[in-house]
Queue: 2 jobs
Job 1
Amino acid sequence: MSVRVRFAPSPTGQVHIGNIRAAIFNWLFARHNGGKFLLRIEDTDRERSTPEAVQTILGAMEWLGLSYDEAPLYQSTQHGQHLQAAELLLKNGHAYKEDKGGTGQGECIIFKMPGTDMGFHDEIKGDLLKKAEDMKDFVIVRSDGSPVFHLANVVDDITQGISHIIRGDDHVENTFRHVALYKALGAAVPRYAHLPMIVNAQGKPYSKRDGAAYVGQFREMGYCADALFNFLTLLGWSPGEDREKMTLDEIISAFTLDRVKSGPAQFDLRKLTHMNGLYLAELPVDVFAEGVRRHLAKVDWAQSLDEALFMKVCRLLQSRTPLYTQSETWKYLFVDPIEYDEKAFQKTLKKEGVMLAL
RNA sequence: GCCCCCAUCGUCUAUCGGUUAGGACAACAGGUUCUCAACCUGUUAAGAGGGGUUCGACUCCCCUUGGGGGUGCCA
């Protein structure tokens, strides 16, 4: 079975850390299995989708090295496909029209759940079952003619030939609907894997209120892509054998879904910072220096530093810098005069017999 | 309310019936040191509770408790 997975973000703003983690896991799964990693931009929400947000997504993926294998599919171009699928469901009796009243006006198209108990196998959580009475019919096309997420998502996954759907835990319940949709559409049901959520110290979904929550923010704060990638990989997954800091190749070859945990994982910025330090320490000096330069660009005392001294300082402090932004505290090395008591200094020199090689 | 999922040090995790329950981050102590930091060494620290199954349970089953998710003409 050839592996085809996808990352399907909505271009409505910044790229959330939880979303990019899902992208990373999909990417790793594809690379580990020699499959394809596809990108689908779910831009059907005309109100909130913007071209800038698409660029933000592309930029975040490029920064982290998440290369995709085929041209991105823009969901808005699939509108006809979605409606065609709805028509098919109507025709074969899996859907019906109804005016539900309430917020919308007119008839919407509703998918009829099979009315039998259902189940699917989750690669991470195991077998999941649901009784018929716990599943309700649901709207697939709104009364204004626009397809709902469930329909669009499933139809697009079918047209992109997705074999494994690896996504956040918050979609577990949707999966029963999606499986029913696949079957009603006469398509092969893909394999599913639901990733544990990334939560904050309170156990709630990690959000921007908990500090940095977007890829762009981590980049600005001075974290390097490899460190963030490695760290995110360890949230909910472990290669075993006490391995943590790994090269990309090592991660790819060790990555399997059966080693993904199913409980939520708390985001610990301190551990990320420590790991970032390990990555910065092994960078070539000039690359490190370049990163420092970027972060010092806006700092007033660092506007015209002596190049030779700057490189010297970089060489000296590289291994002790967990974050680029820490270079902002290097001011004393360049401009502050060293304060000392001349008399006490001389006295110490004599007393200790200290020899200074100056 | 109803449905589903989850549960090892403060945190991320290893363990897939038999271990002194291991590693990492953090914390603490000491060392090193031109402040800070980094670094080195060491210490503290965990199987939520109760029943089973078994010669033997962190590990398998059940209940309780706690946490999370879902329950839209949102995605």
Job 2
Amino acid sequence: MPELPEVEVTRQGIAGPLEGARIEALHLGKPLRWPLGCAPQRLVGATIGEVTRRGKYLWMPLAGEQGRPQGGLLWHLGMSGSLALLPPAPHEPPPPGPHDHVDLRTSAGTLRLNDPRRFGALVYAPGLDRDPAARLLAGLGHEPFDPGLTPEVFHARLRARRGPIKSVLLAGDVVVGAGNIYACEALFAAGIHPGLRADRLSRPRAARLLASLRSTLARALLLGGSTLRDFSDAHGVAGAYQSEAAVYARAGGRCRRCCGTVRRIVQGQRATYFCPGCQKR
DNA sequence: CGGGACGCCTGTGAGC
DNA sequence: TGCTCACAGGCGTCCC
């Protein structure tokens, strides 16, 4: 679920309402991927700043009572996580379900993390540039919409990589944001075979792939992301992108462009979907 | 150092 | 119906 569009849609749903809100309590359920890293009580009274995104992480800066910087919270939705912003007092939030593992109660409402598989995380860090945040973000590549990521830069980065282009997109150390769905869809849109070695992409094809990646992510963002099982935005609204996926999860189906058959292969333990007719090495 | 496999955890759907 | 098995959108860590 949560690839860049889903995380960004989530961010857009919570950033405005939560900015300036005061933390009243933090309740934790079952353990997530990593421990919080500080006593929940220590966050009470802090004021939430502007929530930002880096890759698939959300950063929620916190300010202390006297405006002193007080670090922040790094959120990750993992494979099955979603955030819901529940109405503030006088409304009492419904009791947490079995997969609700975080309730961040604030003056602007309760931010609730639901994550059945618990690959997600909530981690406190003294700053974005301080551990553990710095360590987690250290290996991330360019943001896909970063103007500094020119076709030339993208091509140069790909030329240093010998693995299949699909795996390189997924790895996130060249460009962040594409998970399995959007990596497959962007490659289809660009007409590039997922098994092509990254260093074998010509400059024009690299440029085309970058453009396809951007348009794919932008389109998904516009549609509120993809909902394959249970993703929803901060207001509980499902995404709509999955219904227009050209290849993802469509093995055996008819390619919408050439009427050939969509194939499924496995690369690096992950399923890859592509159209052999439209995507060339 | 790059690249690939593993494992974290639970739910779902297919097949028997 | 009920069981088992494969598989699922991410990513840090380990090993070669």
